[in-house]
């Protein structure tokens, strides 16, 4: 088997163990204690909290994603429908939190493409008040999956919008 790792020191260790060189479109994912290169389109956690909706203006209970230990990849749902993180600024005190998180950029357009995007949290009249972290997004057949990170502070939480386009439908 020919394994190509482009960073030389990898060649002197057991190549690709611990997912040092996962194939394009795959990622190092831990399932049941086993770490391997997997396709996040198949191996993800469902995130279906209705409170994450950008339509949600009820902030009587303030959620904070900094309390969650994020691991691996996630697929958003609102009800039975695939959802996505909004690409536009969301006003503060929505999405069941104080500072709603949105991405400054677009989702991937190529099937199996993984992109990195900056996440911002709106607060105090600024869409960019919290420059929280980066996330990765993959376009799967008909939905997105996200590799989410813990935001820097409370109260920040990821927003969800209904999916904007029908993705990768057969032509
Ligand atoms: C979220 O998904 C879980 C597992 O499928 C389900 O039990 C729960 O009712 C769902 N929650 C909502 C709000 O859709
Ligand atoms: C938001 O994205 C635009 C377009 O990619 C970029 O020019 C701008 O610098 C970004 N803003 C911040 C605050 O990162």
UniProtKB/TrEMBL annotation:
Q: Supply the name of the protein.
A: UMOD/GP2/OIT3-like D8C domain-containing protein
TM region positions: none
Signal sequence bounds: 1-18
Tell me where in this chain the UMOD/GP2/OIT3-like D8C domain is found: 74-160
Record's Pfam families?
A: D8C_UMOD
Under InterPro entries, the record lists:
D8C_UMOD/GP2/OIT3-like
Task: Report if keyword Disulfide bond is assigned.
Answer: yes
Organism source for this protein? Xiphophorus maculatus
Q: Which UniProt keywords apply?
A: Disulfide bond, Signal
